Amino acid sequence: MNQDSKSFTQCVLPLWVFTLLFAGLLHVAWVGAWLLEQHLELRAMWLTTSGSRSAYWLAMKLLLWVLPALLLIRLSGKSVGEVMGFHRARAIAVWGGGVGLVLGITALAAKTLGSQPLFPPSLSWSLFSGVLVAPIVEELTFRGALLGPLCGRFGFWTANTITGLLFLGIHLPGWHFQGRLAENLTNPVGGALSVFLLGLLFGYVAHKSRSVAAGTLTHILNNLFSA
Questions:
Q1: 77: left (phi > 0), else alpha (psi -120 to 50), else beta?
Q2: How far apart are CA 67 and CA 60, in angstroms?
Q3: Beta carbons within 10 angstroms of residue 141's beta carbon
Q4: pLDDT by residue (tens digit) across 176-220?
Q5: pTM for the whole thing?
Q6: Residue 218, by phi and psi: left (phi above 0), alpha (psi -120 to 50) or beta?
Q7: Residue in 134, 142, 148, 144 with CA at minimum distance from that of residue 219
Q8: Cα(111)–Cα(22) distance, integer angstroms
Q9: Mind giving me the DSSP string for the chain?
Q10: Closest CA to 84 of 75, 92, 93
């Protein structure tokens, strides 16, 4: 940790407290982003297309998720490269790719049994956002910025559980504003329980591989095959 960051965290609050404060503020800000989206959709015609909505949510994620997450990583005394673990290519391939493919095969099998299309019929901005943007942003934030400081205070399994619950919580505003909250809270497959368990799995992959990039790859493959 550089001297300025170390002095700041020691003199004000421990890093794990900053981490939980950031998580709480992120959830509040995310509700605000949904309220703003609802307001703009009624008054701004440009927000009625798939591309414009994707651009809006990308901007919100960069502002509310990525920038604060990068600051928190800096306060932890690590670089983004260290947290992501890009140099652990083998671990990324084995853990990230292996677990991701298992999830993908499971999703394809479920689709086959349910007589559902295996893949989306066409490419779209929402598909790009769900398969690529969301996993990168979410893993950088939850497993990159949040999990590490919480592990230092509570140990891995407790920290992973807290992070998994926070990961589930960030999905609740979207479900509410899309009118799917009750459905997703009660649906055992593809709903809240699945999101929580996947959050635990992504954290476990990142922990075992010592690479958030591995958890990100698992997340990407899961979303790709589940789309």
A1: left
A2: 10
A3: 27
A4: 999 999 999 998 777 899 999 999 999 999 999 999 999 999 999
A5: 0.91
A6: alpha
A7: 134
A8: 37
A9: --HHHHHHHHHS--HHHHHHHHHHHHHHHHHHHHHHHHHHHHH-GGGGSHHHHHHHHHHHHIIIIIHHHHHHHHHTT--HHHHHTTT-HHHIIIIIIHHHHHHHHHHHHHHHHTT--SS-SS--HHHHIIIIIHHHHHIIIIIIIIHHHHHHHH-HHHHHHHHHHHHHHTTHHHHHHTT-HHHHHH-TTTSHHHHHHHHHHHHHHHHHHT-HHHHHHHHHHHHHHH-
A10: 92
Reading the block at residue 68, the tokens are: 């604060």
> Structure tokens of 124?
């779209």
Task: Let me know: does 226 contact 107? Beta carbons within 8 Å.
Answer: yes
Among candidates 7, 145, 160, which has minimal Cα distance to 76? 145
> Model confidence over 134-188: pLDDT tens digits?
999 999 999 999 999 999 999 999 999 999 999 999 999 999 999 999 999 998 7
How far is residue 131's CA from residue 114's CA, in Å, rounded to a whole number? 22
- How far apart (Å, rounded) are the C-alpha atoms in residues 110 and 10? 50
How many residues are listed for the chain in this entry?
Answer: 227
Residue 54's Cα: distance from chain center in Å?
16
What type of residue is 221?
L
Rounded-to-integer distance, Cα 100 and Cα 88, Å: 17
**Amino acid symbol at 192:** A
CA distance 146 to 17: 11
